[in-house]
Design a protein that fits this description.
By secondary structure, the chain is of the alpha/beta class. The chain has 19 helices and 15 strands. It has a 7-stranded mixed β-sheet with strand order 1-4-5-15-10-11-14, sandwiched between helices. Strands 8-7-6-9 form a 4-stranded parallel β-sheet, sandwiched between helices.
Length: 450
């Protein structure tokens, strides 16, 4: 009998996170201030506690996971690795398809992997209140859950289009005690200014970040927590890939290709970075970040210093960007609507150590439906991007006869996204190929540094 579900025991939860910085061929480029000079810990300390900044700036290969965090991880980790034998049969491919299923977490996604340690690190620093942003709601619900666990109040600025599209994620955040506001909001100067210019503004992650950072910077009792992009967030997510390596080893497998959705980069980094060390040692493995054609940051953006938010509160980071004032279409994969990408992911892509592909919205839902009919799990719209790219490679294997081993990160279930599937079945969704002139207009506003 083919083994289809590969599990680990609780005592096999990783004891350390993997820091890819230690194995990068070139050191990461530093964040800069508006004057073009590197930003130090004292400036970042306005919005982050020292406990978080220590991880953000670390070059150590292995960073110990605090026992309190591992104890919290035990609620849902280790997560299963599953071989998609029914999907393989449906596609008629000689490829073996494996997926790491992160939808078993309390919030239904991979995001608690970082929310739990961030809440813990803020707690031991004496912080009682956090602000954050969220797109589709996976991060917001995860930080609300983590805040409740460690006794921290949480205020969340949720991108307005997602606030309207995904009301039950809002309900999750409120169930765990968080305050939630549609962004842009009247709560901050950033939000008020944007609404004065455009009362119908549907929001973006860049705007929501600006609102959350503005509030955190203006209150002595508050810090900011970020769900993607920065080094410490990607670090926390590596529990995904570290577990996957152990699970594949149990059945004598190693992937030829790994796929994951990529918005800010935590999803992709979580499963791919632990394999990057093997690649650096000569192992042949291709790591593919999958993004929407409507927000094609890696595939059509430029590698430049830009703000992480829409207003310019954050330091400048060297990343692939579509411009900090880029306004993406209201696609249903709200977690992938960010104008930039993680500086680490961006640098690795720039140095050609990882790959990227962009896929259209309709094709992702088509893949999600095909996957759910074969495997039973309904993927979140973000996860459907990885499903699409992996299925496309499996179909290529059918044409070439190559028996590749493929792995993708099924980063969350779609139980709170069924309105998106409703619109897909009703024929109301459409593909958005972001116009070149709109990208060029946004890029014209990049800061003149770096």
């Amino acid at each position: 009998m083919t083994i289809t579900r590969i599990n680990l025991e609780e005592n096999e939860i990783p004891t350390h996170w993997y820091n890819v910085v230690a194995d990068m061929p070139n050191p990461p480029l530093p964040p800069l201030g508006p004057d073009g000079k590197p930003v130090g810990p004292e400036q970042m300390g306005v919005i982050f506690p020292d406990t978080v900044l220590e991880q953000e700036m670390s070059g150590e290969r292995w960073i110990a996971i605090p026992e309190e965090v591992r104890e919290a991880y035990r609620i849902w980790r280790p997560t299963p690795l599953i071989r998609a034998v029914r999907l393989e049969k449906a596609l008629g491919t000689p490829a073996k398809i494996y997926y790491k299923y992160e939808g078993v977490s309390p919030t239904g996604s991979h995001k608690p992997n970082s929310a739990i340690p961030q809440a813990y690190l803020n707690k031991i620093a004496g912080i009682k209140r956090l602000t954050t942003e969220t797109g589709a709601g996976q991060w917001g619900s995860s930080l609300a859950f983590a805040g409740q666990m460690f006794g921290i109040d949480v205020r969340i600025y949720m991108v307005k289009i997602s606030y309207q599209q995904k009301p039950f994620r809002r309900s999750m955040m409120q169930t765990w005690g968080a305050e939630v506001f549609a962004s842009p909001s009247q709560m901050t100067k950033t939000g008020r200014d944007i609404l004065a210019r455009d009362p119908e503004n549907q929001g973006s992650l860049g705007i929501a970040i600006s609102e959350a950072v503005e509030e955190a910077a203006s209150r002595a009792d508050t810090k900011y927590a970020l769900g993607s992009v920065l080094n410490h967030v990607l670090l926390h997510q590596t529990v995904i890939g570290l577990e996957a390596k152990k699970q594949l080893a149990k059945v004598g497998e190693y992937p030829d290709m790994i796929f994951a959705p990529c918005g800010g980069g935590s999803n992709f980094a979580g499963i791919a970075f632990p394999f990057l060390a093997d690649k650096a040692a000569g192992k042949q493995v291709r790591l593919v970040a999958v993004e929407p054609t409507s927000c094609p940051t890696l595939t059509r953006g430029v590698y430049a210093y830009d703000y992480g938010d829409a207003t310019g509160f954050t330091p400048l980071m060297k990343m692939y960007t579509l411009g900090h004032d880029f306004m993406p279409p209201g696609i249903h994969a709200g977690g992938l609507r960010y104008h930039g990408d993680s500086p680490l992911v961006s640098q690795l892509f720039h140095e050609k150590l990882i790959e990227a592909v962009a896929v259209p919205q309709l094709a992702t839902f088509e893949a999600g439906v095909a996957f759910s009919r074969a495997e039973g799990i309904i993927p979140a719209p973000e996860s459907c991007h990885a499903v699409r790219a992996c299925m496309d490679e499996a179909i290529r294997c059918k044409e070439t006869g190559e028996p590749k081993t493929l792995l993708f990160n099924l980063s969350g279930h779609g139980h709170f996204d069924m309105a998106s599937y409703d619109r897909y079945f009703a024929g109301e969704l459409e593909d958005f190929d972001y116009p070149s002139e709109a990208v060029e207009a946004s890029l014209a506003h990049l800061p003149k540094v770096g």
